[in-house]
């Protein structure tokens, strides 16, 4: 999933303390320069609306524009809401279906020539970032890290190491994929109270618990900002912790992935 093409484009990466992270989402493509030592952004986060349809070429063009605006010429980590294996996107649950089978190496070679680019799953990126700069629980033992947003993303972690490309949001529970009933997009769409939605999340986490017996769950995504409204309502044997990086996690994890030349 990692793609390294640049010979020596990365003047800004010479000390490898900074990299650019891009988080591709259904509504916005967000990016920032990341201080890899602290996990903080350097300068502003830039957001451009996701082009519709969000085809690979349209998204790649938008990322090129984002990098222009940031005046960044170094390495770039990019998240996608897709399984990414050997640089090829294999799924496209909440993004244009034309991503399935897209060779991201070839794509970003064309749109971002001469750069080092790493592409990885959005929840995996967020999980890695949480381990490095977020809730300390993320780095110890067996942890299922989840992002609640348009879908449900998962990163499975063992002592901070990632088992990449797990897709727990698509586990079928009572005849329905988990993310069809319990994503935060569903909460909004069906105007569910936190109480009602937490019941659905509880059913999903109970199933994950029954299958994996993790030491802890960490819940992230924008809705983890309101964790006190729903996490205390969950009734599980496994402790549930709120992520600390929230929406920043994808960008930070993307930047970390390219700086580590990550290629699981
Ligand atoms: C996708 C995952 C992604 C998650 C969060 C799911 O629908 O299948 O790959 O991590 O949404 O965006």
UniProtKB/TrEMBL annotation:
GO terms for molecular function: kinase activity. It comes from the Bacteria. This is Polyphosphate glucokinase. Gene3D superfamilies: 3.30.420.40. Belongs to the ROK (NagC/XylR) family. It comes from Corynebacterium maris DSM 45190. CDD domains: ASKHA_NBD_ROK_PPGK. Keywords: Kinase, Transferase. The keyword Kinase applies.
């Amino acid at each position: 999933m990692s793609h390294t093409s640049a010979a020596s484009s990365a003047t800004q990466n010479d000390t490898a303390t900074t990299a650019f992270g891009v988080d591709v989402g259904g509504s916005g493509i967000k990016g920032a320069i990341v201080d890899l030592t602290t996990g903080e952004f350097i300068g502003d986060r830039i957001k451009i609306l996701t082009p519709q349809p969000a085809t690979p070429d349209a998204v790649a063009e938008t990322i090129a524009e984002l990098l222009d605006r940031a005046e960044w010429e170094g390495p770039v980590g990019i998240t996608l809401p897709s399984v990414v294996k050997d640089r090829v996107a294999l799924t496209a649950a909440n993004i244009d279906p034309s991503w399935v089978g897209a060779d991201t190496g070839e794509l970003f070679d064309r749109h971002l020539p001469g750069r080092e680019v790493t592409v990885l799953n959005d929840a995996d990126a967020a999980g890695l970032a949480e381990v490095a700069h977020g809730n300390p629980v993320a780095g110890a033992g067996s942890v299922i890290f989840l992002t609640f947003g348009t879908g449900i993303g998962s990163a499975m972690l063992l002592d901070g190491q990632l088992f990449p490309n797990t897709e727990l949001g698509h586990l079928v529970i009572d005849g329905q994929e988990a993310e069809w009933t319990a994503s935060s997009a569903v909460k909004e769409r069906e105007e569910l109270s936190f109480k009602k939605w937490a019941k659905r999340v509880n059913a999903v986490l109970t199933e994950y618990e029954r299958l994996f017996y993790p030491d802890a769950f960490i819940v992230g995504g924008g809705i983890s900002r309101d964790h006190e409204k729903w996490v205390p309502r969950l009734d599980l044997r496994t402790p549930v912790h709120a992520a600390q990086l929230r929406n920043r996690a994808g960008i930070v994890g993307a930047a970390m992935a390219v700086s580590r030349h990550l290629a699981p």
